[in-house]
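Our preliminary data section would be incomplete without showing what the modeling component actually yields. Below, a chain of 101 amino acids is followed by its predicted structure, encoded as tokens that our downstream tools consume directly.
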Amino acid sequence: MNTASPATDVFHAIADPHRRQLLDLLAAGELPAQELADRFAISFAAISQHLRVLREAGLVARRAEGRQRIYSLTPEPLQLVAEWTVGYRKFWPSRLKLLGA
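Predicted structure:
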């Protein structure tokens, strides 16, 4: 069982669909916070909070460039998620067959 605090827990960080979308955007390359926020129908403050959660979980890095904050993906913590899902992959083929039927 993971004893990390919710703020630094990778599973907590990726539980929110906005944060997963932020990770998807950053997978294509680094972006300024404002450009990330412009792609959502929620406030800049909300995006900033989501980015903070991702940063505390080690999933994104932030650097200053003038007045902008540039974010980039740091995917290494996602290895924990990949390792956790390995034990459940044996169930996927049968579930997909049932879905197809």
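The longest helix spans residues 44-56. The domain at 10-100 is CATH 1.10.10.10 (Arc Repressor Mutant, subunit A). Preliminary results of this kind motivate Aim 1 of the renewal.
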